[in-house]
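$ fold --in a.seq
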Amino acid sequence: PAIDAKALNDYGYTGRGVRVAVVDSGIDGNHPEFAGRTGLGTNFAESSVTAWGDCANSVGAGCGHGTHVAGIIGANRDGTNSRGVAYDATLYSYRIGNSTNATPVGSNDSDKLTAIFNQHASDQIKVSNNSWGSDSTTADAIDPNANPSYWFWDANIGTLAAAQSAVRTGTIFVWATGNSGQPQPSEQVGWGLYDSTLKPQWLAVMAVEPDSDTGGYKETSFSNRCGVAKSICLAAPGYEIYSAESGATGLVEKSGTSMAAPHVSGVLATMAQAFPSLTSPQLVERLKVTAGYDNLSGKTGQTLATSGLSVMQDIFGYGLINAQRAMSRIGIWVLPMYSNYYSGTTSLSDANLRMPSGLSTVTQSAMRNAYYTVFDSFDGAGFSVRGNEYFSQGRPQRQVSMGYGATVTGSGASTKVQQQIREVAGAGTPLRLYAAQNKSSGLGGGLGFWGDKVFLLPRLSRSSEQAWATSSEVQWLTRGGQISVFMNTAEQGTIQEHGVGYSAGIGNLLSWYGSIGRSRKTGTEFALRLAGNDHDLASDVLKLGLRVPIGANLEFFGFHSVDRLASRAADAANWGIKKGAYQASAIGLEWVLNKTDRFSFGFFMPEQLTSGQASVVVPKDRQADGTVVWERRSFDLEGDSVPGLMMAGRRDLGEFYGVRPIARFQAQTNPAKRQQLESVSVEIDVAF
């Protein structure tokens, strides 16, 4: 609980695949806590003896030390005894104690130290735990007020080169500060303190214990402090720690900074698994900046509030580690803008990533419940977030308001009405010309068949929402029916849709309409990002209609459209679509009082993507050099089955002072939001 290890284990971070060296007295491979482990490592004390093996606690000084330390790092999670912080880590035993004692390699034994450091590079060790050291402290050997070369490296250039080689391959060295109760850490801590090559991957760990008075943690009486090594020092639990007992099958309790260091090593192993793109210095920095002094006190009562930051740093360095904070976001979520992460990023909130227009609630739910990779602006660490955080909530998915078009009279009729339709020429003749204007596009063929009801048909609010679309239709009366040729153009004059239709009737029983067409327009229906991502959308369009008179003033109508999209590949800026189709339908009743006054109500299926597959290219990870690894995610499209409700009406209010205002109203629900009213409007048209 002191370091929140369980939280990171529960998220699946267990050190799997990460190599951890335990430089110590050995590891008792016969202990059940290490059952099934491969005996990897090297014996630097007795080359003829296996590295996995430890003298029993009762045999000699320090025996069982390495087994205890290894258990803290990586004891099996098997439901018995204890488990290690990184219980799936790959353990290497770098044995520096012989069969009768655990006397470590001394600071003067440069040949063995050189071999140990070189072995780290050969084995590509990620984390090296060193719970051993000399009684002399860092302050005994260096002057913290000067900038000397450390005498050990001056005397042992080859050993320094070996240590630097290990660091270059990525090894992070974790050192216990020592148990002499001194204000400075052990000598070995200083080996990395004044070498700029080693320092970013060299850590010291002092020990804390539970504080029964405060419920927090306090400095142990035996621990050496961080002192001059405060810039590379952390605190971790080191008092009465239960772990594997060498020569037995159970646990034994030990205290010391030797027990504190493996807590840090274990957390680093889980971090290395979770953040494979982070460099070793970045992992160290993340662990340091997420440590803290909350509920932490010195052995004579020093706290951050009473003694200040400088005193706490001298004792605890960066403070007590916290695994959960180390595995959590530090900065803000960002996304790469280019093929390399370091070439530029944008915050997730500014990216405005959007889903395609017209998705059903089923498909939206699938996309929002999926997980996507984002990066921490602090160091580029990769995390997973759900789609409801990944995609912008502001994506317009609304249907165009379904209501009657404006009908105006007078020679100076305004064209700045939201929607209008009229028979321009040819009334009562074999040749008729219809024209329509709308602020939401999507009219197409059928103007002559549907008349004012064309605005009662469901369609998405497209990218041309703020531009005027115009439609024209030429209709020829033929024997038994009418043939129409239609064209829909955008404000700038480009043709968006064109095609041919045919309508006919069976006496006074019913009238039907069908059309086929080709649509090609510029839009943002499949834009992943908001800015500047218009793209061509090509599709084949089929529309069907039915009108059935019921009495003198009542008519049933039905409508269905299928808009089959041409496939397009996904890229970093746009969604891809394969075999996709928009569909929409409506049924209703219209009550017609006269040429102007009418009322309709009915059901409609919103225009939505009902089939096909949408794909998107998103970042999956990044490499250590910043190269972004992309992945293609695909989602099957399916439509909803619950219809919405609509009603609309138009009423001539009579003549007032020489003008005839006409009232229009409409209301429709959103079936995706439990039939909440999505659009309600009342408008008054007046011709001046």
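$ fold --in b.seq
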Amino acid sequence: MVVSCLLTLLAGCTAAPTSPDEQLGPGPGTTIDTFVTDWQSGRTNDASLLTTDPPAAALLMTTVAGGLKSTKLAISLGPVSRSSATSASVTATMTWTLPVAGTWSYAVPWTWTRSGSGDQASWRLEYSPAIVHPTLGAQQTLVVRSTPTTSGTIVDRNDVELIAPVRVYSVVVLVNKVSDVAATATQIAALVGRFDTSITAKSIEAGIAQARKDGNDGYTVVNLREADFDIVQTALSSISAVSLPSTMRNLPPAKDFAKELLAQATPVAEKLTAGTPGWRVVAVDAAGDELQTLDERPPVPGPKVTLTLDITTQEAAEAAIASIKEPAVLVAIQPSTGEILAVAQNAPANALGPIALTGQYPPGSTFKIVTGTAAIDHRLITPATEVPCPGEWTVDHRTIHNEGFDLGTVTATQAFAHSCNTTFARLSTELPDDALPTTARQYGIGLDFDIRGIITLTGSIRDAGSILDRAENGFGQGTDLVTAFSEALMAATAATGNMPMPILIRGTTTTVDHPAPPRSAAARAAIRTFMRAVVTDGTARQLQGDGVVYAKTGTAEYVNDKGAIQAHAWTVGFRGDLAFSALIVGGNDSKRTNAILDTFLKKLPEN
């Protein structure tokens, strides 16, 4: 009996001990324990030998386990009841672990009979299909079937679907049916090249040749949304050897809408929208036809997932940069919440990857927001402090120039508004070595964010190694690096006073490697004064007609791959509860980023 109890504990069964009764004789306890242990362990042939019909029992046990796709069976037992010397009963609770349903439990009565006499006597389980489930009949078994669920939708902040089913048509050349490759390629390119400028007659000819080489029957030239397809459908249909199959795909509102951002965010959001399939355990006959449902759980539809993007803002941003020939990006953030409203890139930028989020570039004079903050906090200036703004200023044998102007002595506000490099280079030399990196972190620059749905970088600002390094870093050259994302976050911080925590998917939590240091009240007020003067009387006067806008412009010189000096063009700022940054890589003049933002802001209502 000790061995029996050990087996019982190891197998997970809870049989009550059955003591021999002097009048009824030995009970079936040991046999029941062995039967349970064998069945739970998957030794169905051994278990079946303890029934009155071993072949039928073995077949049923194996068939049911397969039909339920069970990964585990646990059997617990109630007390054994003796009605005679040769008959006993016990209730077994069967708990199956199923791949879809989790665990499924029910009770089944077992009847055990004793046959033979003396040493040859033995207990056997009276076999019928009901030993597996009380309602199971002859030639029946159990199966588990999943019930499909539906995924939730992905919507923008205004509950408008961002990813929705769209019919897409494929333009497929049946390569083995083409008689004149050059003519066919020319015809197709003339029709679909308007939708994708990379498609030419030569590219189609090359695609056909490669398909033939690879042994493929078809070459897909392009996939077109229904609206575009309708324009060229008739003409395409007239070209022999062209097939036009269609399918439904989950796509954003337009072909390149938030292309680089959604490439990262959509897979994450789709996992969050996943529903929970339902399940049914059913009894089926030998043909597999359902006889009755024994238990079930309905499917749970997936939840709706909200991205903080605003479709209108995103479309306005994309329209504002679409015609720029160089890589151009525009990022917008809501200062009050940190919610990312738009991440736009034009086609040249998309060719470089998600540069709006991770592309690191020198900030130029937009970094004077940081330098100005540090100078205020170290009591070097106030908005009204008079400071020199000479046309050039030399430090450690390096001459720093303004962009062709000399203002003489002006207020710090005027120096900021007109972007005096000499003023802020000199101020930075009067700061401690770590002042600029420390202050930059107030704005999120140099911090590492873990934002669900996207990967971002914020740049890096190093401690100055020399007074010259500090001077050059002070006006956004030197070793300073930022991203369009961190520049928009800097603008959002300037708008509210302290850095908001950026977020893209509502209901998720963004973490950061270090908390942003708080900003002083003096800096919060002064920087707003500075940035407003840039629009009213400075380098961003192009934005005067766009409401109450606060901004800072900048150009950041670099040497291109041909050895020539160029400059990145920047403008950052905010209006109401909208913060933004615009960058043209190699754009040379911030008037161009001002123009982008002028177009952008005019498309949006003031908030």
